[in-house]
Amino acid sequence: MTDTTTQAVSWEWAVPGILQVDLHSAPANALGTAIIEGLDAALDAALDPAPGDAGAPAKVIVISSSIPGFFAAGADIKLMASIDFEGFEAYGDRLRAVVDRLAGAPLLAIAAIEGVALGGGLELSLACTLRVAGGDAQFGLPEVKLGLIPGAGGTQRLPRLVGRGRALDIMLTGRQVTAPDAHAIGLVDRLVEPGQALAEALTLAKTLTRASAPAQAAVVRTVDAAFDLPLAEGNASERSEIAKLFTDGEGREGIAAFVEKRRPDFA
Ligand code: CO8
């Protein structure tokens, strides 16, 4: 299998179906051009693996950092200090594009967070399907301290996850939230001992690959519909998704496997 490295991002197949992506842009994993391009390349590798790699696109991508103390410190403030408005717009668009590509990719994404996840770093994790954190991790959207607001989806994804009041508290103060507090409000899905986030994320990824990927994708779509659609339309989307899974998806195989007391043969 191919292990690949760019200047700021490396990736390798943990097992077939699971691509592990490591951020290592010293000193703080600021989301400059190198990380943006590296994440894009890692997504290419996940969705369209090279011949000889896992053979099929990744079902799960796990994103972590090997820089002690930092998951990612946010948008590259030094870069932003050096550019004019056009450059700022272009930079923001590139950052948003890769964050949105991750959020919309046909796979499940897990952020394994140790150290600080601030600003765009937190927004990157919000674009993941699930977040696992070590007990010493810290979270925040400190943009108001720079005279800015979150610009890579944070104003939209954080309230959907933790509610309006908690999101406003975090964004208006710019304060850092501890991992246990982040877990208590639903910003983090799994809380583990410091240093154990990646191991836990990989265990979770393996569990996820055992279930039906089309069914999981439908779960994500219908749960997201709960935030975007009126109740009746959301329920209609659930009805249509489950019907598709029964007719064209893996529902029949899953049901047959249960009745025949065997493991389902999911793609
Ligand atoms: N960008 C660039 N460099 C950074 C960043 C950053 N976001 N964060 C840290 N660094 C650098 C520091 O400058 C320092 O570099 P050097 O050694 O060369 O001086 C190095 O990383 C280590 O940082 P510190 O010495 O400050 O380390 P501490 O442990 O004392 O503090 C903190 C760590 C708390 C993370 C601190 O560095 C900090 O507050 N960083 C800024 C965090 C922040 O404000 N993030 C939000 C950025 S704005 C944003 O993300 C908006 C996203 C959307 C933008 C879209 C439109 C463009």
Automatic annotation (TrEMBL):
Matches recorded under SUPFAM superfamilies: ClpP/crotonase
GO BP field: fatty acid beta-oxidation
Entry's transmembrane regions: none
Pfam families the UniProt entry points to: ECH_1 (PF00378)
Catalytic activity: a 4-saturated-(3S)-3-hydroxyacyl-CoA = a (3E)-enoyl-CoA + H2O; a (3S)-3-hydroxyacyl-CoA = a (2E)-enoyl-CoA + H2O
One of the record's GO molecular function terms: enoyl-CoA hydratase activity
Keyword terms, alphabetized: Lyase
InterPro entries for this protein: ClpP/crotonase-like_dom_sf, Enoyl-CoA_hydra/iso, Enoyl-CoA_hydra_C
The family this protein is said to belong to: Belongs to the enoyl-CoA hydratase/isomerase family.
Protein name: Enoyl-CoA hydratase
Organism, scientific name: Subtercola boreus
